[in-house]
Amino acid sequence: MSKRDELIAKYAADLKDKCGVNTDMDLLTKVTIGCGPSIYNADSSTVSGSDESELATVKNNFLIKKLGLSDGANLDAGIAAVMEQYGQSNRNKYRAVVYYLLTKHFGKESVY
Q: Which domain holds residue 31?
């Protein structure tokens, strides 16, 4: 099993255990591949839910540039909803899981 496959399995377990989501494995795989090499770096593989600059990066680089959404309060509300779903007390919020949940939240599966 490759390192990426191991990470995808870990993300799927996180989605099931921490978010109560039945995972679309095909979409999760595509989102994970879309994250590129960041998933292998300890710092960039996670998202800090309390760091405003980190959340701004997620909003600008993922929601606006990748998913093609237009900027607005609904993006911040979507990020807040996903962070709440993942659990504010969860220290490790994996970037691929957050991106997967955001993709589902905004119904942008077609991007992948």
A: 3-111
The answer to whether the predicted template modeling score (pTM) of the entire model surpasses 0.90 is yes
* DSSP one-letter string for the chain: --HHHHHHHHHHHHHHHHH-----HHHHHHHHHHHGGGGGSTTTTB--TT-HHHHHHIIIIIIIIIS-PPPSHHHHHHHHHHHHHH-TT-S--BHHHHHHHHHHHTT-GGG-
Question: How do residues 39-52 score in pLDDT, each as one tens digit?
Answer: 999 889 999 888 89
> CATH no. for residue 100?
1.10.238.120
Number of domains into which the chain is organized: 1
